[in-house]
Amino acid sequence: MKFSIPLNLKFSIHLNQIRWKREETSLLIKMFFAQCILLCPDVFSHIFFYRYIRWMQTGLCLISLAIIISRYLSNKYIWANLLFFTILTIATIRVGLDFESLMLYSSRAIGIVVLYYYVSKKNYLLFWKGASDYFFLMGLLNTILTILYPGGLLFDVTANGKNKGYYLLGNTSQVIPFYIISIAIAIIYYRQTGEKKSRPGFIYLQALICDLIYGSMTSLVMLFIFLLLHLILQNNKPTIKKGKKLAFLAIVFVFSWYYALLVLNVQVLFRLIIEKVLHKDVTLSTRVVIWNRAFQLIKKSLLLGYGASTRRLIVFGSRSFDAHNTVLQIMLMGGILLLASYIWIIIIAFKNWTKCKSQMKMTGLVLFIAFAIGSSAEMYVFTYIFLIPLIIYLIGEKQDNPAISI
After folding, report:
1. 405 assigned to some structural domain
2. Element (H or E) spanning 164, and its range?
3. Residue 3 included in any domain
4. How far apart are CA 307 and CA 103, in angstroms?
5. Which residues pair with 166 in a beta bridge?
6. 76, 160, 272, 308: most buried, per Cβ within 10 A?
7. CA-closest candidate to residue 170, choices 186, 157, 148, 153
8. How far apart are CA 388 and CA 371, in angstroms?
9. Is residue 401 one of the residues assigned to a domain?
10. What domain count does the chain have?
11. CB 389 within 8 Å of CB 349
12. Considering the entire predicted model, what is its pTM?
């Protein structure tokens, strides 16, 4: 006996499909433009209309706070992020309110955390697609501009008299982390769809080409570690035990490296290689000197640091630097209280991460380890240090949203 679907029901189904596609397309477009504002390419900060972008970032931050109040007050991860910025605000007010610097750090990070969490709740798979598409397009544009303008779109003169290039996504040490995040998001997205796409490999090739032009050793190490760990783990079953071992080994590596440089001064043993082959000074581009000065500043304000004010910077003559290390920079900005709140964010992220049973779980772990090691010698774009635990947290979210239809 044959059954036929009534014509009016077919028409209703068709209308619903059109409506879903329109809603998904609209959400993707809104997400793309919001990312353009919140993850604004760093080179725009040197252009006259950047102040208008800052206004939009502040506006999105206020909208994000309203969304938190109306929807996500019970979410521990959101609360952990708010605690971080509350401590940062208190630390900034304590040394003399620098509202502009405070909003520069807060608005983009809060905005991107809420945007990604909100879209992932609306449509989980659509979120990964939207994030992957944005990072891929911006990375591709940066690669093209890097090849066309290998010296940079803008440049500044460093303390040793050399020109420091600024590319679409920032200076030489800030660009490659963007590509690594892009690779990880693309892998996570395609693992959910079951498609075998060449996008992750193509992004990695772009990153390698760009780093060969930039000549950033730290970024090259990050690329190598990410690729090596990914190749080792991609065919293995994800286990919490293995993840804990890798995280522990990464921590041991970083602290051993610091102890060897700051206490044992092992770099002096390789003076000839560092100076003649790598064309660097024995202090590894003054990093060891910067770290020592950072420790001295931290000791003077251990509990709350110096906030988002310029007092957090390491001064050398007429120039100032960040700590070239994420942990030290966080402690300079908010002391042990701010560092403890960031560790809490990471703990909550990994607790949620353990819920995931698929292979994309390991991609998040590899991303975290690569950034942990890279961050030991660099202070990356402030928004990135919130993107990494956010990606790890979202990996563990329930994947019960409908698949995208576009």
Report:
1. no
2. strand 163-167
3. no
4. 12
5. 154, 171
6. 308
7. 153
8. 8
9. no
10. 1
11. yes
12. 0.84
